[in-house]
C-alpha cells in the first residue's frame, strides 16, 4: 500500500495503537522553529518524560527524509533540534515534503493531520496559530484554524499568543464551529499570560469533564477538532500589560524588516524572547510542560 511508503511509525507507537494504550501526539515545529537550541532539545525530552510519567506514550510527529514519523528516537529528536535543514510543514507542505524526501517540522495543522491518520486522538502543544494582527490587509490567517475545523483531534494548548489578533482568532473559531474549552478557566489564556480579556466558550472543570465533551464530539461525528485551553501556571505567568508592550515592539520590528508568511511566527517568538530578556522563553517552556500534563491526564480518561 502506498500509505506504508509514506509513514514510518516507531514500534512503540504501533504497539500502543494495537493494544489501545493512551497516546499523546506532540508537534515538532516548536522544536525546530519555536525554541532555540539547546532549550528545544531539553523541552522535547522533558515533555516526553512528563507524558510517560502518566503511563502514556508520547508520539512526536515529524518528517525525516520524506518519511512521516510518529514517535522519534533520541537521535531523531536531536536532529530536529539541531539541523538547519528542516522546513516548517503545514497542510500545504506535507505532501511535497514527503514526496521530495525532505525534512519537515510539523505545525499544529500538520501534526493534527498525521495524528488523525495514525489514530491518535489528542495532541499537546504551546499555542495554536491564528489570525495575525493586520490580517484584513495581509490575509495572514494560520492554516491551524481551518485544520481545527475539519480534523477530529483534541488540541491542548495555552490559547494563542497575543502576537495574534485574539478577538479575530476567537471569531474565526466560532465561525468554523471549533469549541474552545477552558481547562478550569473561564478566561481564554493568551499563552504567556493567564488573561486575555476574552472568555472561553465553555469550561471543563477537570480531565473527566473534558473527556466527556470529547466523547460527545466523537459520538456526534462532528468531524472537527476541539481546543482545550489551559492557562500557564500562575508562578510562570507574565502580566498582560508588560507583554503587550513587548509584542507591539516585535510586531513593529517585523513590519519594518518585511517579515511575512511562514517566517513571521518564528521571527516574532525570537524577537519577544530578546525583548523580554529570556522571560518569555521560560514561560513558554513551562506552559508547554503543563499542557503535556493535562493532555496525558485526558488521554488516560479517554481510554476508560
Ligand atoms: N505557537 C507557539 N510556538 C510555535 C508555534 C505556535 O507558541 O512554535 C508554531 C506552531 O507549530 C503553529 C505554527 O502551528 O507556529 C503556526 O504558524 P503559522 O502562523 O505560520 O501558521
Ligand atoms: Mn501565516
UniProtKB/TrEMBL annotation:
Keyword Transport on entry: no
Active-site annotation: 27, 161
Binding residue positions for substrate: 88, 108, 142-144
One annotated GO biological process: nucleobase catabolic process
Binding note for cofactor: Binds 1 Mn(2+) ion per subunit.
InterPro entries the UniProt entry points to: Indigdn_synthA-like, PsuG
GO cellular component, one term: cytoplasm
Sample GO molecular function, one term: metal ion binding
Binding of Mn(2+), residues: 140
Gene3D superfamilies: Indigoidine synthase domain
Enzyme type, top EC level: lyase
Enzyme Commission code: 4.2.1.70
Reaction catalysis annotation: D-ribose 5-phosphate + uracil = psi-UMP + H2O
Cofactor(s) the protein needs: Mn(2+)
UniProt keyword terms in alphabetical order: Glycosidase, Hydrolase, Lyase, Manganese, Metal-binding
UniProt xrefs under SUPFAM superfamilies: Indigoidine synthase A-like
Protein role: Catalyzes the reversible cleavage of pseudouridine 5'-phosphate (PsiMP) to ribose 5-phosphate and uracil. Functions biologically in the cleavage direction, as part of a pseudouridine degradation pathway.
Quaternary structure and interacting proteins, as annotated: Homotrimer.
Family, per entry: Belongs to the pseudouridine-5'-phosphate glycosidase family.
Protein name in UniProt: Pseudouridine-5'-phosphate glycosidase
Species whose genome carries this gene: Candidatus Sediminicultor quintus
Gene designation per UniProt: psuG
Amino acid at each position: 500500500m502506498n500509505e506504508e511508503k509514506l509513514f514510518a511509525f516507531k514500534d512503540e507507537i504501533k504497539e500502543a495503537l494495537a493494544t489501545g494504550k493512551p497516546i499523546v501526539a506532540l508537534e515538532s515545529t516548536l522544536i525546530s522553529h519555536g525554541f532555540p537550541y539547546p532549550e528545544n532539545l531539553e523541552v522535547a525530552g522533558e515533555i516526553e518524560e512528563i507524558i510517560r510519567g502518566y503511563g502514556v506514550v508520547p508520539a512526536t510527529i515529524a518528517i525525516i527524509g520524506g518519511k512521516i514519523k510518529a514517535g522519534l528516537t533520541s537521535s531523531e529528536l536531536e536532529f530536529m533540534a539541531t539541523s538547519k535543514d528542516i522546513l516548517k510543514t503545514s497542510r500545504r507542505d506535507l505532501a511535497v515534503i514527503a514526496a521530495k524526501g525532505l525534512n519537515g517540522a510539523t505545525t499544529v495543522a500538520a501534526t493534527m493531520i498525521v495524528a488523525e491518520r495514525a489514530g491518535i486522538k489528542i495532541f499537546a502543544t504551546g499555542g495554536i496559530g491564528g489570525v495575525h494582527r493586520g490580517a484584513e490587509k495581509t490575509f495572514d490567517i494560520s492554516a491551524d484554524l481551518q485544520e481545527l475545523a475539519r480534523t477530529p483531534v483534541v488540541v491542548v494548548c495555552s490559547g494563542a499568543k497575543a502576537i495574534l489578533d485574539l478577538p479575530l482568532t476567537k471569531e474565526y473559531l466560532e465561525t468554523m464551529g471549533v469549541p474552545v474549552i477552558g481547562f478550569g478557566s473561564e478566561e481564554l489564556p493568551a499563552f504567556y499570560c493567564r488573561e486575555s480579556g476574552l472568555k472561553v466558550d465553555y469550561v471543563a472543570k477537570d480531565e473527566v469533564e473534558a473527556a466527556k465533551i470529547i466523547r460527545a464530539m466523537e459520538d456526534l461525528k462532528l468531524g472537527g477538532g476541539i481546543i482545550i485551553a489551559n492557562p500557564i501556571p500562575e508562578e510562570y505567568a507574565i502580566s498582560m500589560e508588560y507583554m503587550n508592550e513587548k509584542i507591539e515592539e516585535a510586531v513593529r520590528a517585523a513590519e519594518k524588516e518585511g517579515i511575512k508568511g511562514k517566517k513571521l511566527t518564528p521571527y516574532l517568538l525570537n524577537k519577544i524572547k530578546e525583548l523580554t530578556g529570556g522571560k518569555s522563553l521560560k514561560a513558554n517552556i513551562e506552559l508547554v510542560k503543563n499542557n503535556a500534563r493535562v493532555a496525558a491526564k485526558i488521554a488516560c480518561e479517554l481510554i476508560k
